[in-house]
Amino acid sequence: MKVLHMHGPPYKKMKVSKNLDRKKDVSTSFEYHKLCEARRKLPIYPVQNRLVQEVRRLNTVIVIGETGSGKTTQIPQFLFRAEVHRGSQIAITQPRRVAAVTVAKRVAQEMKSELGKLVGYCVRFEDVTSESTRIKYMTDGMLLREAIIDPLMRRYSVVILDEAHERTIHTDVLFGVVKAAQRQRAKKGLKPLKIVVMSATMDVDHFSEYFNSAPVLYLEGRQFPVNVYYSCCTQSDYQFAALVTLGQIHKQAPPNHDVLMFLTGQDEIESMVRFVRDIGRSLEGQAPPIIACPLYAALPPQVQLRVFNRTPPGARKVVIATNIAETSVTIPGIKFVIDPGMVKARVFNPRSGLDLLKVVRISKAQALQRTGRAGRESSGSCYRLYTEQEFDSFKLNTVPEIQKGDLNIKRMCSLSSVVLQLMALGISDLIHFDFMDRPSKESIITAVDELHLLGAVEKREKIQLTALGKQMAAFPLEPRLSKVILVAKEFSCLEEIMSIVSLLSGESVFYTPHKAREEALAARRKFMSTEGDHISLLNIYKTYKSVGGNKNWCMENYIHQRNMKTALDVRNQLREICDRQNLPFKSCRDDTVAIRKCLTAGFFMNAAELQREGTYICLSTRRPVSIHPSSSLFRSKPGYVLYNELIQTSKCYMRDLCVVDPDWLYEAAPSHFKRKKLPT
DNA sequence: GAGCACTGC
């Protein structure tokens, strides 16, 4: 490789280690010193006592703990042993399913209890708890959903919100919900609700302020020091810089010192893997053999598992990963981290009003998280491919998800879901809801407007949920899709609608490997309908069912088996909810008009009209849009279509389309279309 | 004639 002979970015060594970025916040804190002293004698019990004491005294405590502090597994046990829970349940939320499940398993082992008895977990499709469960790990979305049924969270005496620094939309909403529940319970003279917020954040004051100046406890982690090196000058090509840095490390570092490199996406990672393998080959005999492992979410699970394989003696593992390796996956053996300081994120484009995926700078918090990955088992090094001045200009924290949605069309759906959920919780004044970081007024109003259009809320002296809205809130779906389900009763086609909605709500069931692209597209053509992609999806579902849905059929037809399985799980879940609401499970057989009319009731705001020039414009925004080449309607030009989503790449593409009649649009939302001229 | 980071109910 030519690259190896060139000079890489020179580095300046910094005296930074685990307390990087914390600055005086932490080191001058009285609690911190007190905690450290105590910990030197007896590492974990003083924390336990202090925690229990504070929770008893003040009801709310913030716990700041580095990775490896054991807070997720230990703190619930502390509170349980001290009987802070007073016989009822302790809930611990996690942003990710896997974390909720694996942590619960470990704690069950530690407590020598069968999983699902004393210690259990609850995630979508899986409730492993029982009457005797006292420590319950769950996803944040799950607790939020439970809160709709019981806003006072009566079955819990302690709610622990873990990984709060990640600021997922669910955790952010839960902040307000648990705070309100705590206050309400106190007011009603019910058993107090204890709240513990656990975070790895640097932005401690913000959390503490929000929770009425709750005391902050600092935990030390099992983190080893990491030397941080900044680049001396700005790097114009971070991929190149990353490769050069890897080359230098590889030539100098002893074997079995593994490397983790962060890149932004699949393409970048795959091409980097090829370069890295080239380096390995060109240095054969002079340096340890390289095992290059790509890691990103879209990778099949078996391939992902390779990063956990132990590196054979004398070799070096180089893991090239997306930000999945920041939080979701912990890889053993990492001594070096290469951080180009970039991440691919959804960003809002104010010019087009659309969001798109773009490579942007990470936050300081993310940089710290990446650095920490080098110090899990012993001390390590982190190469930051940006200057210290550049680092100073990074945002302190990643923008909370709930604020990312502002004016962002794709995310509008999420905010309307959240608004619907909050209203179902009995909170109608969302503008004044106690958000830790509030979304803009405009984005709330837009969400309320959408719910109004769907008939989920009505505006009297104040905004309130309609009976329809209440029913909609019971479904774990975007409000538009819930509306489609509820309207299916009128058209007697719930059977078909359920299949379509299930397939639409999850990830794509189309599997298109690079090597067999043509075969995959040909296989797909068999199911395509001239009425659009929704009917095509229904054809797939029906065929899958008629052949008994086996693995071979999926392979032959290039259908993504795992995603298909998830869609079936979703369908079962939706069916249960429909049963509870006494919705008749009728089939319309081949009456696709009924199906498309249902879809119109939920997606009329996503209608596009064919213009004389042969292009489309979106009826709500008057913006030009195009049919995505993957659509079954790509080669046809129907007068009116609905689309499931817009995606901005080289053009503004509509995805998942359905042919409709303009009359249906008017029937579905007369007020929305009254000023718009629609030919009959 | 196109490409998509990561989650969750």
What is the radius of gyration computed over CA atoms, rounded to a whole number of angstroms?
27 Å
Tally of discrete structural domains: 4
Instruction: Report the portion of residues in β strands.
Output: 15-25%
From the N-terminal CA to the C-terminal CA, the straight-line distance is 66 Å
Assigned CATH superfamily of the largest domain: P-loop containing nucleotide triphosphate hydrolases
Biggest β-sheet: strands ordered side by side in the sheet? 5-4-6-3-7-8-2-9
**Average pLDDT, to the nearest integer?**
86
Classification by helices and strands: alpha/beta
The CATH topology annotation of the largest domain reads as: Rossmann fold
**Count of extended strands:** 24
Overall helicity: 40-55%
Low-confidence stretches: 1-29, 34-43, 406-412
Q: What profile does the largest beta sheet have?
A: 8 strands, mixed
What's the number of helices? 27
- What is the CATH top level name of the largest domain? Alpha Beta
Return the CATH architecture of the largest domain.
Answer: 3-Layer(aba) Sandwich
Shape: globular
